[in-house]
């Protein structure tokens, strides 16, 4: 019976999605923040993939709905989930003096170096998505979870997204004018995930548009 119990425990362990990640140059407090953000980002992105459809949220960030385009969006979101589930994400906590963190960047990656994600000090000033309320100006520059979705989508083996726009106003305009570019835009996945998993459940009538932000 003991051997059977051990076997069952092992099966249950392997049945769970991988959550262990790697942290380089991060303090214990930073590591905890990143771990929480990665875990929540995985759950929210999975919900976003399921929510892809002919909806206002989809049209706002990816343009006119078509089955082919929606399948691409869903596949890209699932690829982000797969990357986050792999347990292979490495979060490197950089300083403002490090390459890539000298401006207003929150995080950055190199497309061909999965899954190494460089986090700048300003990343830790971002709020977690679940802490926000409608009209809260802390959401103007995004969230920790949204930033992770943005960055992970950049990797070539994930969704190979680019940065065609950076603010909600600009990205919503681009979705109306050029759906194909919107589907290839990292911020579009961030905003869709944020909206469909949290903000869409809140009254947004007087929510101010976010300010442009630097990210890559």
What does this protein structure show overall?
By secondary structure, this protein is α/β, with parallel strands linked by helices. It has helices at residues 2-15, 28-51, 56-62, 67-85, 144-154, 168-177, 179-183, 186-197, and strands at residues 22-24, 90-93, 107-108, 116-119. It has a four-stranded mixed β-sheet with strand order 1-2-4-3, with helices on one face. β3 (107-108) and β4 form a beta hairpin. The radius of gyration is 18 Å and the shape is globular. It starts with a helix and ends in a 19-residue tail after the last helix. Residues 1-18 and 203-214 have low confidence and may be disordered.
Helix segment count? 8
Termini, distance in Å?
Answer: 54 Å
Strand percent estimate:
5-15%
The helix/strand class is alpha/beta
H and E order: HEHHHEEEHHHH
Mean pLDDT: 83
Overall morphology:
globular
Percent of residues in helical segments? 40-55%
What is the number of E strands?
Answer: 4
- The whole-angstrom Rg is 18 Å
The largest sheet, given as strand count, sense and whether it forms a barrel, is: 4 strands, mixed
Strand line-up across the major sheet? 1-2-4-3
Low-confidence stretches: 1-18, 203-214
Which keywords apply here?
disordered N terminus; 216 residues; alpha/beta
Concise overview:
Helices cover 47% and strands 6% of the residues.
Walk me through the topology.
Layout lengths: L1 H14 L6 E3 L3 H24 L4 H7 L4 H19 L4 E4 L13 E2 L7 E4 L24 H11 L13 H10 L1 H5 L2 H12 L19
Parallel strand pairs: 1-2, 2-4
Antiparallel strand pairs: 3-4
Helix pairs in contact: 2-4, 2-5, 2-8, 3-6, 3-8, 5-8
